[in-house]
Amino acid sequence: MLFSEQLKQEAQPIIDEIYKDPFIQGMLHGDLSHDATKFYLRADASYLKEFANIYALLIPKMKQLSDVQFLVEQIQFIVNGEVEAHEILADYVGEIYDDIVQEKVWPPSGDHYIKHMYYNAYAKENAAYTIAAMAPCPYVYQVIAQQAMKDNDLNKDSILAKWFEFYNTEMNELVVIFDALMNQLTEYCTESEKNEIKQCFLQSTIHERRFFNMAFNEETWEFGGEHHE
Length: 229
What we know:
By secondary structure, the protein is mainly alpha-helical. It has helices spanning about 5-20, 20-30, 35-60, 65-80, 85-95, 95-100, 110-125, 125-135, 135-150, 160-170, 170-185, 190-215. It has one domain (about 5-215): Heme Oxygenase, Chain A (Up-down Bundle). It is globular, with a radius of gyration of 18 Å. InterPro entries: Haem_Oase-like_multi-hlx, Thiaminase-2/PQQC, Thiaminase_II, Thiamine_Salvage_TenA.
């Protein structure tokens, strides 16, 4: 079994839980609250900006020019391409996307997720660690969307069905390339190193679950005390 296949197999139980959680179920049935939708858009706007920065940190670690080109293309996709999925959600709440994301949010779960990726980008020389921390993002979206498109509970009359249609195929090429890089970069790793890289992947899959739940619950920083209740 390829290393990338092993990672996906071990991550599947987490993805199953993501699918059953209220955010994805709300999207599936077309009744996700508008507040949760807008919170997700605001949090994801902050997240994707950092995701693009982490792609840039990977560029010096790539040995093949084709891999560098791939990373540059992914940065461009984050800036331009993925806006289509966000526009679908903005249409669902009946507001303009750019207006929604004028309000910035930086919730605890998103903060933890982003720092997890930055840590692996800065602390580990082998790019496999960073890719393992990043790869669950497109993979989770791909799996969830593909499952939703086969689900009889999908509300096809809701505009949210278009969100699933977008991710049903849009992540395919990225997932394939991430898999290839993961297998290539771990070819000569020790079992101990592979286990560390696997943990990066599984931790990010958990972070994906927390990100969706964070949006559904409109998570905030709670510092306690008289002025921070």
